[in-house]
Design a protein that fits this description.
heterodimer, A: mainly alpha, B: 298 residues, Alpha-Beta Plaits, 5-stranded mixed sheet, 3-stranded antiparallel sheet, 9 helices
């Protein structure tokens, strides 16, 4: 046992079962004013996005800044970003769990909730990008298994199902706690807990089932999580495009996703801890650990970045070379270097120091990483499209640049608000830190009725 | 056999010329029963019964293939195009005739004429570029719903009633051959009456991808694609690879001889897409390279 676990445990160990239950259930009953304002803000952002989408459906994708050549825009880069974020679920609740990193157990549920919210919104945003959303059903009726898009649809659905199961299975005992302990809640909510706790009574056989199922799911989710982002990278690397034509793209995407995912967890931890007063559960030590993990993941990502750009920039072959020149010195250079330096190099350097792994500085650095990750995906998608083999000539001026329109920004903002809304609603319904796992670690026995 | 096919190509070149001369005068008569081989009776929109020769009538009454029929290629054919770069002067007649036939607006061209220069020391030249109808088409490979497909006659088509608008094919095409209907395509009097056919790509449909289709509706009527007959310089040849013959509307030549003698090549051969459009190098030009105005006349 290392020091982290000790200090983590001493805080909670002093607590009785009743206190733990009280702490972790406190946020569920009733709506506080802050929560209401938060929900209204999110709803308004989503409604603006819905209005923008209405305009897009009515007038066509002409309302976006996408045109021939730049035929994919921030919808696609945002989709890639959300798929990346969804990898956190498997990172924390599976990779860390299987490697016996018990310090991360308070984070499992948060990460699974984020994963589900991100993957749902990724699926929505890909429909938003379609020119004919009315024909979505064709993907099922006429689907060709040879097309990487179909691979993506299949793997996303698989990942969503496994993630939902992973979240739900570990939730059952806690839903039973909610069923037994919560009194001042509306009728539907009582019914919800009763139905979904599946008559959980903490029996030996029940425990056994949960333990077995979740360890199977934990293992299953890893290849699926790797596949989901690797297949997303194949949407690009299976095309004949300079800039995407890379065998490195799969691990490059996956490592970037894990880095961004760790940063998202840190941000979520920070706000959950502050708004729900969970300082004893989400400790400074936990931030410190996540900070170290972020450094490790960023270093891996740095390695794949060097791999991705060094070869082509050494050779500077034809259009590929033009694309690299544009990124390094051209009109995308300021974005590229800001992202590489502030979104990757600086976090690595700064987080080596212990002081930077305190909650507030770590939060700021995580924001940088997330912002960098988003812009990085923009830089992966758009500049490549603007460097086809044949020169772009004889087109309207607007075809040469891509500056997203307000509709695109509104819809993208709405997708972010959607992720936050889904996270908020789930958190509002269930204990955000697994009660039964906390009790178990403390050697306390919960009594279910 | 080979000779016959070649002769039919000469014929179809002439026929296409005849149609453009007679001018398909905008009337859209409904088909009546064909009485004999030479003359048919047609009902004009203002209710008059007229007798016209069969060839003109067919040009007017031809019903292009339905989306289902269009998936079948023309049996026994393998269509190819040859572009003689030494003859192109950027007259842009191919573009305007294509635009007219496919009811396109200038922002959605099926054909582009690019100004190319292989290196600083060699002379620039004009390169007409359309869909290369690849035998190993990247667009067909990636399409999730088989909206774009490869036919037995070598043509790659798009079914705009199937296309979901994901634009993966546009990303996949190394030649930027595809255009997208970002907004609602304008509905003209003419397009309104057409029932949609992948062989004409008319009428255009919002939110779907389009591209050069080698005019299979013309080919089914044994006529040449519009761009071929429109070219004033005879720079564009079209033909059937199985018959080893191509024509530019004027002369008909053996494809293999043409490619061998003039060092024909395919653009970006190294990508392995196996295009069905060949280029002849811009050597020994008939007219020296000249910067032409973009929107010259028309």
């Amino acid at each position: 046992m290392n020091t982290v676990e000790n200090s983590n445990a001493t805080d909670i160990r002093a607590k009785s079962l009743e206190e733990i239950e009280q702490d972790l259930l406190a946020h569920i009953p009733g709506w506080r004013k802050k929560e209401k304002i938060w929900l209204i803000v999110l709803t308004v952002i989503i409604l603006i996005g819905v209005f923008a989408y209405y305009r897009q459906v009515r007038y066509g994708l002409i309302v976006t800044a996408m045109r021939d050549y730049t035929s994919w825009g921030i919808y696609i880069s945002n989709f890639v970003f959300f798929v990346a974020i969804s990898l956190v679920g498997s990172l924390v609740s599976s990779i860390l769990k299987l490697s016996n990193a018990t310090w991360s157990s308070p984070l499992t549920r948060i990460s699974e909730i984020i994963a589900i919210a991100a993957i749902i919104c990724a699926s929505i945003i890909i429909i938003v990008d379609m020119g004919r959303p009315d024909r979505f059903i064709y993907v099922i009726i006429y689907g060709r298994i040879q097309s990487p898009i179909i691979w993506d649809v299949i793997i996303i659905m698989t990942y969503l199902v496994i993630s939902l199961l992973l979240l739900y299975i570990s939730l059952i005992p806690d839903l039973a706690v909610c069923r037994d302990r919560l009194v001042n809640i509306p009728r539907w909510q009582k019914k919800f807990y009763k139905v979904f706790s599946l008559n959980w009574q903490g029996k030996k056989e029940q425990n056994e089932i949960i333990r077995k199922t979740s360890s199977i799911l934990c293992i299953m989710v890893i290849p699926v999580a790797f596949a989901i982002h690797t297949v997303t990278s194949w949407l690009f690397s299976t095309t004949w495009r300079p800039g995407w034509d890379s065998t490195n793209l799969g691990p490059y995407f996956v490592s970037g996703a894990l880095m961004a995912g760790a940063a998202v967890i840190i941000v979520a931890m920070f706000f959950i801890r502050n708004s729900m007063h969970l300082k004893e559960y989400i400790t400074d030590k936990l931030f410190d650990q996540m900070g170290k993990l972020l450094v490790l993941l960023s270093l891996v990502y740095l390695y794949f970045n060097i791999n991705e750009y060094l070869g082509p920039s050494f050779k500077m072959v034809g259009v590929e070379g033009e694309h690299i020149t544009e990124l390094f010195f051209g009109k995308y250079a300021y974005m590229y270097w800001l992202v590489q330096i502030f979104g990757m190099v600086i976090p690595i350097v700064v987080l080596i120091f212990k002081q930077a792994r305190k909650p507030v500085p770590l939060l700021l650095i995580s924001f940088l990483v997330i912002l960098g990750a988003w812009v990085k995906r923009f830089l992966i998608v758009i500049p490549s499209l603007q460097h086809p083999y044949l020169p772009i000539q004889d087109v309207d001026e607007s075809y040469l640049h891509y500056v997203p329109t307000w509709e695109e920004w509104a819809i993208t903002s709405a997708s972010f608000a959607g992720v936050l809304l889904i996270i908020t609603l789930i958190i509002k319904l269930v204990p955000v830190i697994p009660i039964w796992e906390m009790a178990e670690e403390n050697g306390l026995k919960i009594k279910w009725s | 056999m080979e000779k016959n096919q070649r002769r039919s190509f000469i014929k179809c070149g002439l026929a296409a010329g005849a149609i453009t001369l007679t001018g398909v005068s905008g009337c859209t008569p409904t088909r009546q029963e064909v009485e004999n081989d030479e003359k048919v009776k047609l009902l004009t929109p203002d209710g008059k019964l007229v007798e016209v020769s069969k060839s003109v009538a067919e040009a007017n009454t031809y019903q292009p293939a339905t989306p289902k029929e269009a998936r079948q290629g023309i049996p026994g054919k393998k269509f190819v195009m040859v572009v003689d770069l030494s003859r192109c002067t950027n007259a842009r007649k191919c573009i305007s005739s294509c635009e007219h036939h496919h009811q396109l607006t200038p922002d959605r061209p099926f054909i582009k004429v690019l100004k190319m220069q292989d290196n600083a020391d060699s002379s620039p030249y004009w390169m007409p570029k359309k869909c290369f109808q690849c035998d190993n088409p990247p667009c067909v490979k990636v399409c999730p719903v088989a909206a774009t497909y490869k036919r037995s006659d070598g043509i790659v088509l798009v079914d705009n009633e199937r296309c979901i608008g994901c634009r993966f094919c546009m990303s996949a095409c190394p030649y930027s051959a595809r255009v997208f209907n970002w907004g609602k395509p304008e509905e003209t009097e003419e397009t309104h009456h057409h029932s949609y056919s992948p062989e004409t790509s008319v009428p255009s449909k919002i939110g779907t991808v389009e591209k050069c289709d080698f005019c299979p509706d013309m080919l089914r009527q044994n006529k040449l694609p519009h761009c071929i007959t429109a070219c004033p310089n005879g720079a564009l040849y079209f033909g059937d690879k199985t018959a080893d013959a191509v024509t530019n509307g004027g002369e008909t030549v053996r494809l293999s001889t043409l490619l061998r003698e003039k060092a024909g090549y395919r653009y970006l051969e190294e990508l392995g897409t196996e295009p069905n459009v060949y280029y002849l190098p811009p050597a020994n030009r008939s007219v020296p390279f000249e910067e032409t105005l973009k929107d010259a006349e028309i």
